[in-house]
Specification:
By secondary structure, this protein is an alpha/beta fold. Helices cover 45% and strands 13% of the residues. Bound molecules: 3-methylbut-3-enyl trihydrogen diphosphate (2 copies) and magnesium ion. The site of one 3-methylbut-3-enyl trihydrogen diphosphate has 11 residues, from strand 2.
Amino acid sequence: MSFLFWKRKDRQQSLYEKIDLKRVPTHVAIIMDGNGRWAKSRNLPRVIGHRAGVEAIKEIVKASSELGVKVLTLYAFSTENWKRPADEVSSLMKLLVEFLRKETKELDDNNVNMRCIGDISKLPVTCQQELHKSFDITSNNTGLILNIALNYGGRAEIVNAVKAISKRVKDGTLKIENIDENTISSFLYTSKLPDPDLIIRPSGELRLSNFLLWQGAYSELWFSNINWPDFDRENYYRAIIDYQKRDRRFGGIKD
Ligand code: IPE
Ligand code: IPE
Ligand code: MG
């Protein structure tokens, strides 16, 4: 092993020691952004950036399990990403299938429970089949929930919820006066999950890009200039350390 490898391990270890393991965020959500720029800066095609982005997922999933994070939501494809050239969209779908075929066994061995949010019925059939296989294989696992946001958009999610609630009102099974915030939450893709405590966005963009709009109302946000394929344990630990320094008031005041 090289000197640089040990140096990196050393840095990781000293950051790890700064994390209070009793106050690790329950739900971390990550906007995996910057694959294209990562590739461009190396004069490589965008798809190579996406491939490198998939590689980066593995380490962060492992680190999440080890830290005791309960839910890791990864924004992989937004409702707006269909606007991209057809060959990029199809490469992304192929990479998803490849990831599921290659990684499901190890994720299952690590007790990871795979799920998704978003309308996956619009994805290519092979993607849907592989996703359902992975969900079925890992459905009884009790460890980290790995929640992949695919064809996900916060606004589309809220529109769907409004339609489903309206239908209930129309057929008389729900009274308008009984609709509250919990009702809305219960009609979202995330109905059974806690809201994200921490939303991480690498790549230097300072926006949510339609991610978890309802659920993120009181999430702590963490941004970094690093592109997603370079996002590693060190960055992840830094995000969690910063998160633990935040004062989450939820609109209240300190005693
Ligand atoms: C994120 O990387 C991956 C997806 C949105 C699918 P990008 O492809 O958005 O990379 P940049 O933002 O162009 O660098
Ligand atoms: C957000 O990134 C979506 C994902 C990472 C999957 P985008 O690259 O699509 O977002 P914008 O276009 O920069 O806002
Ligand atoms: Mg982007």
